[in-house]
Task: structure prediction
Amino acid sequence: MNIGIIGAGNIGTTLARKLTAAGHAVKLAGSKGPDDIREKAMKVGALPVAAHEAARDVEAIVLSIPFAKIPDVANIFADVPADVVVIDTSNYYPMRDGNIAEVDDGKPESVWSSEQLGRPVVKTFNAVLAQTLAEGGGTAERIAIPVAGDDAHANAIARELVNETGFDALDAGDLASSWRQQPGTPAYCTELTLPDLQHALSTAEKARAPGARDALIKGFMEATPPLRHEQIVARNREVTALR
Result:
């Protein structure tokens, strides 16, 4: 499959490495142009390109950019065929992104993303830490990743890509339900197996999530020394667990 990834941070670059290893042809775009990421892209087996080139002649596009930047790339999608799958890996953090009133009022993040782009998206690869994505796939007790979207074909493609990166893909329902995998929920960055992830999604409480999200990030930013990966996962589980 020909895949374009827009965003060359930890998640985007790790996905490029894993998807090229799975046999896909990957184009990788960063915010400063192809020259800035050329060495990084070549190292993971991807072709460094400009963002608009990442959306050309591909069957899937992965958006791995800060949530508030999504409107900035909407023009790239004007001529992208309707059957191209668009995967949104982003998450909303008001302290980084600024406040977005519609999302603060409860609109699921990827519903908002879809509206900004003017086309459907699939929400996945958002509920996993970069280190988990890089190192946690393919273990005997596989970590599961939720996949939410409104189009059956696009969802199936996204689940296939999740499985190819070494994780179990879980059908998490439609895009309106994708709030269940947003920051501050029990499914978010808690490294759960398939049955436990299903339970986490079903028991999520929408009203609690923003407060848990903000408390977690505040704690992570203030921690001295910085928390290790396993401590972050444990803290996520502790704060978002049902009471």
